[in-house]
Amino acid sequence: MCLLSPAFARPMFAALMLAATFAAESDAIAAGPPDFRSAEEAAFLADNDTAMSKMMDGMSIKPTGDVDRDFAAAMIPHHQGAIDMAQAELRYGHNEKLRRIAQEIVVEQQQEIAAMRLALGQPLPPSAPAPDQLHAMPCSSTASTPCASPSNDRSTTRESK
Fold first, then answer.
1. Going by C-beta distance under 8 Å and a sequence separation of 6 or more, which residues neighbour residue 92?
2. pTM
3. Residue 78: count of CB within 10 angstroms of its CB
4. Is residue 58 situated within a structural domain?
5. CB under 8 Å, gap of 24 or more: what pairs does 56-61 form?
6. Is 144 a member of any domain?
7. In angstroms, rounded to a whole number, what is the distance separating the alpha carbons of residues 90 and 130?
8. Are 11 and 105 in contact (CB under 8 A)?
């Protein structure tokens, strides 16, 4: 994967722009919420502040002497931070273009995390649905997660209407 290829540069640029935007918002949170801030916006900003803090902590690595491992050790939490911020956009955002970009960030950053782990011979974590997708999971008696209630299930089929 070439670092200057459009396939790599576009999601990286988007993730960096999101990180810079949310870093500025984190400063606004620390200054105290203005009176006009909605509960939804406050929750969004709190989620992003948490994601940024977790990402920055995770990127603070102790060098091992192995450049490849150190690179991956810093980049994996960076990519996970972009995923966490994009998921906050999906939870609270209303602009369909930004929501689409956020979906792309989630998918592309997960793929890059998997590629870095595989390149280093690390095991991949078990597959799991995104937190925003749990409501759309089909209900089965063998499911390891609770089934969605009919009132919260957005994936209603024609047969069940």
1. 40, 41, 43, 44, 47
2. 0.61
3. 19
4. yes
5. 56/81
6. no
7. 11
8. yes
* Residue at 22 is within a domain: yes
Identify whether the C-beta of residue 27 lies closer than 8 Å to the C-beta of residue 63.
no
Count up the domains in the chain and report the number: 1
Q: Tens digit of pLDDT for each residue in 99-135? A: 999 999 999 999 999 999 999 999 888 887 766 565 5
Tens digits of residue pLDDT in 10-68: 666 666 666 666 665 556 555 555 556 799 999 999 999 999 999 999 999 999 999 99
Q: How far apart are CA 57 and CA 109, in angstroms?
A: 18
Task: Please tell me whether residue 71 adopts helix, strand or coil conformation.
Answer: helix
The token pair at 50 is 């948490």
Residue 143 predicted with pLDDT over 50: no
Domain assignment of residue 22, given as a range: 6-123
- The residues near 7 (Cβ < 8 Å, ≥ 6 apart) are 1
Interacting residues of 148 by C-beta distance below 8 A, sequence separation 6+: 134, 135, 136, 137, 139, 155
Q: Under a CB-based contact definition with an 8 Å cutoff, are residues 72 and 81 in contact?
A: no
In whole angstroms, give the CA distance from residue 88 to residue 132: 9
